[in-house]
Amino acid sequence: MDPETPMPPTSPDSRIRVKRVENVTQVEFLDRNILDEANIQTIGHEIATIVDKEPNPRLLISFTGVEHLSSAALGTLIQVNNQVRNRSGQLRLANIDAQIYEVFTITRLNKLFSIHASTDEAMKSFK
Which of 14, 91, 104, 115 could make a disulfide contact with 84, Cβ separation 3.0–4.6 Å? Predict the structure, then answer.
């Protein structure tokens, strides 16, 4: 089996790119700005669908290329985190722009999430 397997979009208007690497589902955003409420709801629904498919989801969300994130997007990330934890899974965030990371720090979300500088570093952190 190929160690990296692209997965089909969960919907035709998908706002994320998903692939399986080893036993981790990696999610990347297609948009540089995650501000639109409808897109955030779509992203939340797509990620929830991914998490629900696995008994112990291992999810890595990469913010490569993301420049702006709304508070609604942060709320969706908190929901995803809770959903992953309720299923005894693990969530990692990676490649967060310095300005966005500052928001995580101000809101103390950097204490809630396992945040890593790179995808490789995040992959190594899974147990």
Answer: 91
| Six-digit token string for 15 | 């706002």
pLDDT at 9: 61
This prediction's pTM: 0.91
Q: Judging by beta carbons within 10 Å of its beta carbon (0-12, 13-18, 19+), is residue 99 exposed, middle or buried? A: exposed
Across the beta sheet with 90-94, what order do the strands follow? Answer: 4-6, 16-21, 24-29, 58-62, 90-94, 115-116
Measured CA to CA, the distance from residue 57 to residue 23 in angstroms comes to 9
- Of residues 57 and 12, more confidently modeled: 57
Q: How far apart are CA 24 and CA 51, in angstroms?
A: 11
Q: How far apart are CA 108 and CA 125, in angstroms?
A: 21
Which DSSP letter does residue 24 get? E
pLDDT over 60 at 30, yes or no: yes
How far apart CA 58 and CA 54 sit, in angstroms, is 9
Q: How many CB atoms lie within 10 A of CB 26?
A: 23
